[in-house]
Amino acid sequence: MNDHSPRRYKGTLLERAAEQFHYGQPPVAPPPVAEPRYAPPQMPAYQAPDEPLELDTPAIRRGYAEEAPVQKIASGRRTATIDREALRKGGMIVPGGSVTPLAEEFRLVKRQLLLTARGVAAADAQRARMVLVCSAQPDEGKTFCAINLALSMAAEKDVEILLVDADFAKPDILSRLGIPEGPGLLDVLSGAVGNAEDCIVETDVPQLCVLPAGTKSHSDTEMLASDRARTVIDGLTAANPRRIVIFDSPPALAASPASVLALHAGQVMLVVRADRTSESDLREATAMLDACEHIQLVLNSVSLQPGGRRFGSYYGYGYGEAGK
Ligand SMILES: Nc1ncnc2c1ncn2[C@@H]1O[C@H](COP(=O)(O)OP(=O)(O)OP(=O)(O)O)[C@@H](O)[C@H]1O
Ligand SMILES: [Mg+2]
After folding, report:
1. Which of 76, 121, 135, 215 could pair with 140 in a Cys bridge, judged by C-beta atoms 3.0 to 4.6 Å apart?
2. Phi, psi of 311 (to 5 degrees)
3. Per-residue pLDDT tens over the stretch 119-144
4. pLDDT, tens digit, 9 for 90 and up, residues 243-270
């Protein structure tokens, strides 16, 4: 086991998030808001699926890809090359790059999400393939985590990852990945584009596609809550039984679309920034996202580096100050 092995540190991001916010201990006083439905993250017990599931592969169970996946490019879609240098500069996972502590952390996080996707009853399976990446307040690392999660999941066998920029007020995914702007989800919801599949951008990272936010309007939340949105969003998972849809969400307490998106998603990955997120914000955010049954906390501890605007590492690795 090398020095970067997760076993060397104090548990996974999920466990440390639970520890940070005193999960499992009785509260000193009753919380001021309705008791949220989150609980200490636990690996669900394995349940044999009724029918063979495409996600039930040895590679997924171990959290590692066994061989390079085959890239299938659908005809007629936009294609784009992901800017590896931008990923490197942003401190993100670089496809094909060396295995970093960050990559190891996201292997653990994605495995939890994939296990939940596999473990739910067949009736909820399609919904469980939709993961909303959210946080209580702005700037807590949602987009950072959504991109890293998508890159990590795309390395799995037998999946297609669709990263959806659903932060309509502050769409960041395309610029972070170096992908040119184009039509997206809002254009489909407004009816300007008939089919969401036509807006999807195939990337040069095998098994990773992106759905841009599209053209803003004043009624984004209403459009998201519409029957058409239900059809469009359900269609994203229905179009491909191997597809996992990751939504980069707006912050739960600063924008209304997050709670509407939680109605659609089967899992929420709630990013908690260790140096910023307050416990009351966390409780309020989980209450707002309560429409989603599976809420997982991920602790993102970033620290400003001396002498620059660069942020540091994930909590617990102790390499944020010097080892970059
Ligand atoms: N663990 C991390 N390591 C390095 N940089 C990070 C980390 N987490 C976040 N950052 C950086 O912090 C900044 C804010 O993160 P990000 O944009 O992902 O937050 P956000 O929650 O999506 O913000 P917004 O609500 O404005 O959309 C970005 O520059 C991002 O690259
Ligand atoms: Mg963002």
Report:
1. 135
2. -95, 160
3. 777 768 889 999 999 999 999 999 99
4. 999 999 999 998 788 999 999 999 999 9
* Ligand 1 atom closest to the CA of 254, numbered from 1: 25
Query: Is there a contact between 216 and 210 (Cβ–Cβ < 8 Å)?
Result: no
Tell which phi-psi region holds residue 158, choosing left (phi > 0), alpha (psi between -120 and 50) or beta. Answer: left
- The residue assigned the tokens 């390499």 is 319
**HSE of 71, CA atoms in CB hemisphere, 13 A:** 12
Residue 191 and residue 202 in contact, taking contact as beta carbons nearer than 8 Å: no
User: Using a 6 Å cutoff on CB, does residue 311 contact ligand 1?
Assistant: yes
Question: Which domains are assigned to the chain?
Answer: 13-23+75-300 (3.40.50.300)
Q: Which atom of ligand 1 is nearest to the CA of 170?
A: 27
Ligand 1 within 6 A of 184 CB?
no
**How much is the CA Rg of the chain, to the nearest whole Å?**
19
Query: In DSSP terms, which residues pair with 171 in a beta bridge?
Result: none
∠ CA 313-292-252, nearest 5°, is 55
Instruction: Identify which of 158, 168, 133, 136 has the alpha carbon closest to the alpha carbon of residue 148.
Output: 133
Closest CA to ligand 1's atom 10: 141
Ligand 1 pocket residue status of 120, Cβ below 6 Å: no
**Sheet hosting strand 243-248, strand order edge to edge:** 78-80, 201-203, 208-211, 160-165, 243-248, 130-135, 267-273, 294-300
